[in-house]
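Entry 14. Structure prediction run on the chain below.
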Amino acid sequence: MSSGWPPLRYDSWSATSDTLHAHTQVLGKLAVELAPPEPQLQHAALRLTARGWETLALPAPDGSGAIVAALDLRTHEASVEHSDGRETRIALTPNRPVAEVTRELLEAVERLGGKVAINPTPQEVPWTTPLDEDDQHATYDADQAATYFVAATQAALVLADVRAPFRGRATPVNAWWGTFDLAVNFFSGRPADPPSDDFINAIVAALDRLLQANASAGTLRPDLDSGDVVLASSPGGELARADRTALAERERGVHQREVAERLGKVAELAAGHRVVLLCEQTDVVA
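Output returned:
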């Protein structure tokens, strides 16, 4: 593998890029479901390693140990490995659709560590077909993927070098599956203005509507067209809607764990109801 920075124009490899991006989303969604939640979605982040994109060690759904899911960009395979040494490898071939790889990955997880269900809806991308039904994205050029891996590895090393001397709190160099990029975050430690209660009050009001409707479950989700927060009952139908201006509170430091903690007293009132809070399109159960 070359140690230089290879030229890689997006328009020359966009089809392979989109397919690879979709594959990373499956890994990320496994992390969302299995990893203990952390602030700033750190539990959902992937890593770029010496073999490609991969999760950290995730608790096996059946409690048998840990599993790691990866996209090996050297051998061009998706893989699931169990801490007991068992593994399954799935070839990433030129005409293999995302749906097929997704289903085989989830079957491998079930076989090695227990059944897990992910939200198959793709996130932060222009397409909407569920990952386990996506037959549109099937282009995988191994040479292009390898060239990308060289460039991404160099970028990750640069970010790690920039991060190293910082003595405050910083994240690892994360591989983000929503935006298909690499990033590191630095935190100044300076206090931030506390958020207003508008966002929380909107959620509480929505939960009240849920309880009044006697729904057995509900989902808080962003309406990507209007920007509003919508509470929908599991059988379908909209129960409440929070104005999109409340979403601006995200930019002032509200993250999903803080919201979940502040919803604790409301959760007591909602005993027996499962409420999922979607912040930046990522599930957090309160």
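Residues 10-142 form one domain.
Filed with the rest of this week's runs.
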